[in-house]
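hey can u check if this looks right to u? its 114 residues, i copy pasted from the old doc so theres a chance i mangled smth
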Amino acid sequence: MQKKWVRNQLNTKIMSNEQALQKILEYLSVIDAKLSSLDARMSNLETRMSDFEIKMKLLESRMDVFEKNADMNFHAVNKKLDYLSTQADHLDTALGDKGKPKNLETLNGHGSHN
């Protein structure tokens, strides 16, 4: 009788342990699925980050081109302004005696002759 009772107790313990192991396996399966999902999401994030880095490099390259063009345009405008300033100085000299402009109508030949 004692043997039977011990055997029943051991079988009960074994079944209890098997149930506990089954629960642990179920939890591990859930954890594995979540890790797989997280791994896929991380891979997606890495791809998106790589795309972002490529776009940032492209943007930086475009900004460099923009800055160079702006620089060239700035220098071209300055040269044109210098040229126009020089032309204005020549015109002032041609029009006036000591910087005083003459009557433009007289210069054009349409002025009244007194």
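The longest helix spans residues 2-95.
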